Please model this.
Amino acid sequence: MSFFGFDTRKPAVTGAGFSQARDPFAGLSEQVDDGEALEFEDTYDGLGDQLDETDDVFNDDTFGDTSGITAAPVGKDFDFFGQTAKVANAIDEEHVRFNRQAPVARAAQPNIQPSAAASLAQVPVTTPSSYNYASASQKPARTGYEKYNQEPVAELQVDAALWGVAPKKQQPTQPAEVSAPTAAPSRKFMSVEEVEAQMRAQAKKPVQQAVPSPAPQLQPQTQSQPAFHYDQAYQYAQPTSLGPIPPEHARLGDQPVHPGQGHPIAILQRPHSKHATPPQHVPQPHAAPPVHPRQQPASHVPPTQILQNPNRLSGDATRIVNQPHGAPPVLPGHPGFPGHRPQGSFSRQPHLMGQTSQLPQMSEEEKAAFMEQEAKRAKRNHKIYLMSRDNGIMTPQDKNFVTRIQLQQLVAATGNPNEHGTDESLAEDFYYQVHSQIQGGQRQHPSQPLNNFAQTYLFQTGSRLGGPRRHNRGPENHMQRMEQQVQRAVEAAKNKPKNKQLVIEGSLGKISFSNAKTPKPLLNIKRNETAGEVHRPSSAHKHIQAPTGRDRKTELRSIEVVYSTLMEMEDHDRTMPPPPANDDDAEGRDRHIAWNMAAQELNKKLWKALRVHDEQANGGVHPFIALLSYSKGKKAMERIFRHTTTEQRATILTLIVVNLDNLDVVRGAQVTTGEIQLNAAMRENVELFSVAVMPTLFNFLNELELDLVAGVLGLVCDRNLDMIAKSRIGASMLTMILSRAESIKREGGGSEDAWRAWDAQYTQLFNLLEPSLPHMFPGTVNTGDDMYVWQLLALIGIGASAEQQQRLVLAVKDRVMDTVTLSKTLPRDLAHHRLGNVNLFMHSIGLDVELLQ
Amino acid sequence: MLFFSFFKTLIDHDVTVELKNDIQIRGILKSVDQYLNIKLEDISVVDELKYPHLSAVKNIFIRGSVVRYVHLPAAAVDIPLLEDATRREAANQAGKAK
Model:
C-alpha cells in the first residue's frame, strides 16, 4: 500500500521532536495510500490541475531553499526539519511575529486545516498504531516542544510539492475548490458507490462548506474571517462564545445525513494536531490547495473502520485536551456526534465538554488543575486505548469459528475422552495409546481393556533396545533365575560333598603344575581339529541364512501371518466376555462359547501359520525352524507361547530341540578356541535368541515333569551333540534341561522309573559330551565370557558320578588352570569374577579354586 | 496417523529436527499435530557457528513440511510395539483402500 515505505519508518516517526514534525506528514502520506486503494483516478476531481502554479517562484520565500524542497519529496528520509533548520532564524522571527499577530495569522490558517483534517481522518484507517503513538508523543508537546509542533507546517508544504502541485497563492480560488472536496468526505462514508454517485451529483454545487469549519476550530479568531465560512456556519457559530463550536454546528447543519458517522469527528480532530503549525503558515496561507486531492481519498474511509478503532479518536481527543488552543474548539463539537464514539471514550466526552467549554473562564490555577486532571484522564484513556486497540476486529462469528477450530485440534491432539481406548482410537492411534499405557502416562481408565495390549508389550522381551523397564524383566529375570538355579544346585552339592576324593584334589594340583609348564602342545593339536570342524558348519549355515529368494519371501510372509494372527488373538482377548455368572445366564454362556470358538479358530490359524506340522523339505530345514532364523520370528516366540496350548508348546519345544543343531544360532555360532570370530549379525542373532526364545522355552521347561525332561534330553543326545555343545545357545539349552532335572530332584519330584530313565539319559549325554568338553569354551582363556560354559559344567558335575567327575575334571583342567593363572594377572574385580565362574564348576564337584593356589 | 501417534509419545523428549535447509535443531519436543508441525523448546542449533541467527531463539515452531528428519531418542522407542503398530497401520490402510 505505501509508496514510500512509510510503514517501516513509523516507529521513528513517533519519536519526540522531529517525530512531531513528521507525524502530520506521515498522515498525509497515508492519505495518498488510501487514495490509491480507492482508485485515485476515479475520485480525483482534478483540482490539482486547476492550481495556479504561476507563483511557484515564491516557493523560495516559503521554504527558504528551492533545491532542498524538490529533493525532499523524492528521498525517503524527508528531512524537512533539516530544511527548516536552515531557515530557523526566519522561522523564529515568524514565530514571534505570529505570536503578535496571532489573530491574523490564524485567520489565514483555515486553508491548511482542511487538508490536515483530511489527513487525520485517513490516518486511523491505514496506520492506526503509528498515528496513535504520534498522538501520545504529542501530549508532551506543551512542555517545550512548541517549536517542533510548528514544524509540521513546513512539511505540509513540502508535501504539497510532493504532489507536484506547488500551490502557492491561490487563495482566491480556494474556497470554492476546497468546499467540494470537503463535502466529499462526509458523503463517501455512506459507501463507495453512494459516494461516487453523490459526488457526481453534488460536485457541481459545492454548497456544503465543511472545509472552513476545521479552521475555525483552531482559533476563535476564525470568526474574523467570515469569507471562508458559509452563512449557515456562522449562524451556528455566533450563538456560542467559542469560535470552534460554530464550524461544527455548521457541519451538522450542512450535512445532517452524516452525523451518525465518525468521520466528521476525525476530521475535526485532525486540525488540532496540526493546530500548532499555524505560525509557519502565516506567510503561506496557500498551502491548503495542494492538500485537497488528498482529502478525497480520506473521505472514502468507510465509517465502520473508524468506528472499530474508536480509540484513535479518543486519543486525538486527549491530545486535543492537552493543547490549549485546540481543545476547546473540538470538544464542543462532540455532543453533536454522540454516536461516533465508543462508549468508553464517549462517556468521557460530555464531561470534558462541559469543563472545556468553561475553560476560558477559569482562573489560571483552575486551568492548571483542570489540565492536570485532563492529562491524567488522557493517560488513562490512552492506556485503555492501547489495550483495546484491536477491539471489534473479530466478530462473534469469527470468534466462534476460531474456538471451533481450536477445539477440533484439541480433540485431535489428545483424543476424544469419550472414545478413549475404543477401537477407532486404537486403530488410528495404536502406538500412542499402548505406549502411554505402558509408560503409565494415562491412568484415567485403569480398568480399560487396553491393559491387555500393555501387558503384551510390557513384558515383551524381543527388543534389546528396550528401556530400563525391560532390563528389569524378561531376559534378565530369566537369566537370573537360571543362574540362581545353578547356584542353588551348586550350593546343595557343595554342602553335601559326596565326593571328597583327595586323589582328585591332588591330581588336579599335580596336573596343574605340569600343565603350567607345557600347556601349549596339547592345545595346539586340538585347535587344528576344532578349526576344521568350525569352518564346515559355518559355511553350511550361510546356506540357511541366505535362503533362495522365493523361500525367504514365503517365510517372511508366513511370519507376518503369524504376527497378524497374534494381533487378532490379542484383540480377541480384549473382547473376552466375562464368564457366565451362573448356569442360568444362558446369554452369557453363549457369548462365552462363541468367544471360545473364535479363539480356537484363531489358534488353529496361528498353528497353521507356524507350519509346525509342515513336512520338512528334503535336506532342508524344517519350516518352523526356518521361521526362527528370522529375528522377527524369534521375537514372536513369547507371544506365540502365550496363545498356544500346553500340547502345542510341548510340540514347539520338541521341534526346537530336535532341530537344535539346525538352528542358525547353533550351526552358525560355533565357538572356536581362537578369538571369537562370529560376525556382528550372528552375534546379534545369538543374543536375540537367548533373549527372546530361551526364556520362553525355559519357562515352559520349568513346568515339565521329569519324564518329559528326560525325553527332551534324549532328543538332544540324538543330535550332533558336539555341535550343540559348542554353541552358546546349545550349551544354554543343555544347562536348562539339566537345571530343570536338578530342581526336580531337589524338590523330591519324579518317580523312581523316571529317575532311572534320567540317569540313563544323563550317562549317555556325558559319554557323548566328554570329547567336546574341552572345546566348549568360547575363544581363548583371555576372551572371558565363558560363564555359560561353567554353568553347564557345574550342572554336569552335580549330576555326575565320582568317576564321571574325574573325567570331567580331566577334560577341563586346562581351562581351569589357565583361568586361575590368568586371574592372577587381572585386576581384582575381574579376577574375582573369573574365579567365581570357575568356582561354579569347582564347587559342584566339591572343590574350590582356592585349593589350586 | 501412525507418525502422529508415534511422535506424540516423544513429547518431552530430546529430539533433533533436521530441516530441509540442512539446519539441525535440537530441543525438547513440546507438541506435534497431525501435520507433524513441531514445537520445540529450549532449542539449540547443532551447527551454531554456521547458523548464528538462531542462537537467540529459545522456542521454535516448525512447519511439518519443512522437516527432513527427526532424530529420535532410541531409548524412547518401543520397537516391538512400533512394529505391531506399523502392521496395524498397514492393515488399516489396506482396509481403507478396499
